[in-house]
Automatic annotation (TrEMBL):
This is Sterol desaturase family protein. GO terms for biological process: lipid biosynthetic process; membrane lipid metabolic process. The keyword Metal-binding does not apply. Keywords: Lipid metabolism, Membrane, Oxidoreductase, Transmembrane, Transmembrane helix. One of its GO terms (cellular component) is endomembrane system. One of its GO terms (molecular function) is glyceryl-ether monooxygenase activity. It is a multi-pass membrane protein. It is found in: Endomembrane system. The lineage of its organism: Bacteria, Pseudomonadati, Pseudomonadota, Alphaproteobacteria, Hyphomicrobiales.
Length: 263
């Protein structure tokens, strides 16, 4: 049931965002758009298969185990569900933010995460482009957080669904009215806010780490409001990976294991 709920929400959001991108693009799509889509969606399919064959719905399984055995801070302290659920959701979002920061600052994690940043354009499919090993490490990190707090299963299901939808939305090549963007980004990560994070300029790459809530970047001083070159003029991707012919599926899967100078 958990998988069905997540997939239904994901595909619904994906279709809606794809239609919005088509109608209101922020940047003119490059000539290699469909080749990129094939690669990014292939990575998504591979991620789903690998996760289902290995860890499965690990965070949900951890939540069910914690609930059945009274494991975690919420269970030990007897925190009511109405309080534990929103706190658990916020902690999970903060945990994902922390993981994202670590993926930029720890060289081993960056090797995996660069697969996501090597995309030469940013659109909704970029939000599905993560190396399978990074997906598995993320799942294990969420298991640790869920067990430590004893977050309930329904909160985990809700968070996973929101996180997947937010990743697609925040990466959208979508032109929102400036006033609406300013209003939304007070709470959630908007496409304009997250696009800065995919700039080729390191100071902009290392900013705006949020996937869903924008509060963490404001709180910890990692928010950059706009790219220096503007959204139309900014260069997206990584300076060391500019050749589209070398960004196919096989090359991306091997990218973390290539020898190169430290970032």
């Amino acid at each position: 049931m958990e998988a069905a709920i997540r997939f239904a929400i994901f595909f619904g959001v994906f279709a809606a965002v794809a239609a919005a991108e088509w109608a209101l693009p922020k940047r003119v799509p490059g000539p290699g758009r469909w080749a990129r889509w094939r690669v990014n969606i292939s990575i998504l399919i591979l991620d789903v298969v690998v996760q289902r064959l290995t860890l499965g719905a690990a965070a949900l399984a951890a939540a069910l185990y914690a609930e059945a055995n009274g494991i975690g801070l919420f269970h030990l302290a007897g925190v009511p569900m109405l309080i534990a659920a929103p706190i658990g959701f916020l902690v999970l979002d903060f945990a994902v933010w922390l993981q994202h920061v670590a993926s930029h600052r720890v060289p081993l994690f960056w090797r995996l995460h660069q697969v996501h940043h090597a995309d030469l354009e940013v659109d909704l499919t970029t939000g599905t482009r993560f190396h399978p090993v990074e997906i598995l490490l993320s799942a294990l990190w969420k298991v640790v957080v869920v067990l430590a707090l004893g977050i309930d299963p329904w909160t985990v299901i809700a968070f996973e669904a929101v996180l997947n939808a937010a990743s697609v939305f925040s990466h959208a090549n979508l032109s929102l009215p400036a006033g609406l963007d300013r209003l939304l980004r007070r709470v959630v990560v908007t496409p304009d806010m997250h696009r800065v994070h995919h700039s080729v300029i390191p100071a902009e790459t290392d900013s705006n780490y949020g996937f869903f809530l924008s509060v963490w970047d404001r709180l910890f001083g990692t928010m950059v409001e706009q790219p220096a070159a503007g959204h139309a003029g900014m260069t997206i991707g990584l300076s060391e990976h500019r050749d589209p012919q070398r960004l196919g599926l096989a090359r991306l899967l091997m990218m973390p294991f290539e020898r190169r100078k430290p970032r």
